[in-house]
């Protein structure tokens, strides 16, 4: 069987169906186009070698006023704070004791 040259259209076209988009790209992940050709993007990297218990249900990134970056990781079992690769577990509300296990800061003054 002789080799045949394949011609692909550059870019991703989601305006039509995958079947009618003959010779084009409909759905891609971690790919970019350079000079009309698809090129693999590096993909994903581990942020930390540490792990956490449970299945991740939500991520909440934020930056402190000191420009420190944090990521809150909520699982079905616990809540964690990722501080630049160092993971801290936060104790949550204990339903049996009916109290918050995390000490809340004392607020002084007025918040106007």
Q: Secondary structure elements and their pairing?
A:
Layout: E1 31-34, E2 37-40, E3 56-63, E4 69-75, E5 79-83, E6 86-90, E7 93-94, E8 99-100
Antiparallel strand pairs: 1-2, 3-4, 4-5, 5-6, 7-8
Quick gist of this model?
This protein is mainly beta and 112 residues long. The chain is built from no helices and 8 strands. The termini are far apart.
Give structural notes.
The protein is mainly beta. It contains no helices and 8 strands. Helix content is 0%, strand content 33%. Strands 3-4-5-6 form a 4-stranded antiparallel beta sheet, with no helix packed on it. A hairpin with a 2-residue loop joins strand 5 and strand 6.
Q: Radius of gyration over alpha carbons? A: 24 Å
Number of helices: 0
Spatial separation of the terminal alpha carbons: 78 Å
Q: Determine the mean pLDDT.
A: 75
Q: Detail the poorly predicted runs.
A: 100-112
For the largest beta sheet, what order do the strands appear in spatially? 3-4-5-6
Shape: elongated
Compressed to H and E, one letter per element, the order equals: EEEEEEEE
Strand content: 25-35%
The major sheet is characterized as:
4 strands, antiparallel
Supply the number of structural domains: 2
Protein structure class: mainly beta
Percent range for helical residues? under 10%
Number of strands: 8
